[in-house]
Predict the 3D structure of the following.
Amino acid sequence: MDKETLLTKYFEGTLTEEESILFHSLLENDTEFKNDFNFQKNVKAAIALEERKELKNKLQHLEATRNKSKNTKLPKMHWVSIAASFILFAIIGFWFYNSENQTGKLYKKYYQTFPNVEAPVVRGFDTADIKSNAFYAYDSKNYEKALDLFSKIYEKDKDDYALFYKGLSLMELTRFKEAITAFEMYQEKPNSAFNSYIKWYLSLCYLQINEIEKSKVLLNKLVTFENPFQNQANHLLDDLE
């Protein structure tokens, strides 16, 4: 069985008894498979943490808004003015939304900042370790510094993670053509976890610069095998029809 499929079925909880035996055998004896497993496990944990933080922030905002409205009594005419302003802003917002480039809207719909799943960050810790500093800059949204450090790491060691996060940093800086150049430098390896991740983010870069056919080529590749972006690629292809 394809190793990527085996990993996907593990995280979905659909391994058969025979597949489970194969999975644990590979985990013990195949270093590359173990590294890919740990990478994908860290990705899922980081994304889940971000989702919990986002939900908590939304709930806190709603609670604060509800408490404020309870304690604030406004005259009837004031509420009419607020309603009129809301309608006006809604109309303006609707106009701007519909005037946006269609591919730009789809990019915003599908793009999510990718979390740091490679190196734990210790706040306030002064270190000479360039990898830790690069990820600290990335986590702190200092993407210019992150870009500089990941570029240096890749130039020196040719590590795939450095090229991947270099491309991601460029995307966060809205330097999409440069991100494309970075991602296209990646050389695929059999069963590497980075294969599907780079295809997905590269397809989004092409989408953002309106290179729709190039984006579709990558998306069509992603839907042909089990990977973390298979469903999203399917939905995005539907939206592009």
The chain has a mean pLDDT of 79. The two ends are 33 Å apart (CA to CA).
